[in-house]
C-alpha cells in the first residue's frame, strides 16, 4: 500500500463573507501526480497555498510528510518544492545564478547546468528570466522548484497561457519529475491536462470537492460512459427513433445527418452500432467518455479556457 504524504482534513478558508474553501478533505499518495481540477475561483489555488504554508487556514488540519503545518512548517519547507511565477525571480541575475542562489537558501550546492539541461535551457544559462519565452519561463520555474531535491513538488496552473505544443512539452517534463520518484500535486483548469497527467483527480467547484478518485475510475463513473459520433446521409427516420430510445441522440453542431450518441451500457452500444451500420455511415467514431463529459455532468457547465 502506498504511503500518504499529504493529509488534508476538514479544511476551511474564509474571507469575510466568502468561504473560498469549504470543508475539503483528501490525501495525496507517495509517488503519484494528484490534480485539483476546476475553473477559476473554484478554490484550487487557495487550497494549494494553505498546504504550502502561504495562507493560514480558518480551520481544519494539514499534515505533510507526517508533519503538521501549524507546528513544523520550517521542516516541511526543506522537503517541498514550490513553483514560483516568473515575476518572482530576480531580473538582474542569470538563470544559472538564480538556481545557485536558491541552492544556498537550502544549504545545498546546486549543479545549475544539469538542471537547465533537463529542460533544454543550458544554452540560456547566462540569460535573464525576462528574455525567455512563455514556455521557457514555465520550464525554468519548474526546475527552480527542484533545487532542494524535494520529496513533493507543488505546481499551480503550470501550463496556463502556453500554446498546445509548449503545453505538451511541459507535460513530458512533469512526467519526468514523477519518474524520479517525486510526488506532484498540481492545480489545473485544463481537463485534458488532468486526464493525461494525473493518477488521481479531485474535481472542485465553489470551494468544495464534488468527486475524487483515480482518473480512469472518475471517467468510468459517468452515467453515459459510451459515445458514438457518426455521419449517415442515408439514415431513415425510424432508425433515428430506435436510436433515441436507446440513448441520448443529438445533432452534432447543427449539421445535417451528423449525430452524437451517448449510451449507458456496452450492450446498447453494440446494438446502436449495428443499426447505424445498416445505413452505411460515411464516418463512424466510437469512444468513451472523457473527464470533460464528467465535469459537465457534475456541474452542468464547461470550463472556459
UniProtKB/TrEMBL annotation:
It is found in: Cell membrane. Pfam families: ABC_tran. The keyword Cell membrane applies. Its main location: membrane. It comes from the Bacteria. CDD domains: ABC_DR_subfamily_A. GO terms for cellular component: plasma membrane. One of its GO terms (molecular function) is ATP binding. Keywords: ATP-binding, Cell membrane, Membrane, Nucleotide-binding, Translocase, Transport. Residues 6-231 form the ABC transporter domain. Belongs to the ABC transporter superfamily. This is ABC transporter related protein. It comes from candidate division CPR2 bacterium GW2011_GWC2_39_10. The lineage of its organism: Bacteria, Bacteria division CPR2.
Amino acid at each position: 500500500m502506498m504511503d500518504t504524504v499529504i493529509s488534508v482534513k476538514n479544511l476551511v478558508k474564509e474571507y469575510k463573507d466568502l468561504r473560498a474553501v469549504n470543508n475539503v478533505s483528501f490525501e495525496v499518495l507517495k509517488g503519484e501526480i494528484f490534480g485539483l481540477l476546476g475553473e477559476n475561483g473554484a478554490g484550487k489555488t487557495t487550497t494549494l497555498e494553505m498546504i504550502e504554508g502561504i495562507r493560514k487556514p480558518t480551520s481544519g488540519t494539514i499534515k505533510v510528510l507526517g508533519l503538521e503545518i501549524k507546528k513544523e512548517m520550517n521542516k516541511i519547507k526543506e522537503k517541498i518544492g514550490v513553483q514560483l511565477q516568473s515575476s518572482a525571480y530576480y531580473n538582474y541575475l542569470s538563470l544559472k545564478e538564480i538556481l545557485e542562489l536558491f541552492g544556498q537558501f537550502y544549504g545545498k550546492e546546486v549543479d545549475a547546468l544539469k538542471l537547465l539541461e533537463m529542460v533544454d535551457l543550458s544554452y540560456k544559462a547566462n540569460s535573464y528570466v525576462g528574455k525567455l519565452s512563455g514556455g521557457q519561463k514555465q520550464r525554468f520555474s519548474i526546475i527552480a522548484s527542484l533545487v532542494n531535491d524535494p520529496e513533493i513538488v507543488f505546481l499551480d496552473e503550470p501550463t496556463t497561457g502556453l500554446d498546445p505544443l509548449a503545453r505538451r512539452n511541459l507535460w513530458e517534463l512533469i512526467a519526468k519529475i514523477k519518474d524520479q520518484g517525486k510526488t506532484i500535486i498540481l492545480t489545473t483548469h485544463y481537463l485534458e491536462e488532468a486526464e493525461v497527467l494525473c493518477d488521481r483527480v479531485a474535481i472542485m467547484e465553489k470551494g468544495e470537492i464534488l468527486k475524487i478518485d483515480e482518473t480512469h475510475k472518475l471517467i468510468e463513473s459517468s452515467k453515459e460512459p459510451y459515445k458514438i459520433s457518426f455521419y449517415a446521409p442515408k439514415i431513415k427516420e425510424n432508425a433515428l427513433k430506435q436510436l433515441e430510445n436507446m440513448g441520448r441522440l443529438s445533432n452534432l453542431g447543427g449539421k445535417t445527418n451528423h449525430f452524437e450518441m451517448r449510451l449507458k451500457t456496452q450492450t446498447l452500444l453494440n446494438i446502436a452500432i449495428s443499426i447505424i451500420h445498416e445505413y452505411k455511415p460515411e464516418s463512424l467514431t466510437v469512444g468513451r467518455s472523457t473527464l470533460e463529459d464528467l465535469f459537465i455532468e457534475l456541474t452542468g457547465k464547461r470550463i472556459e479556457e
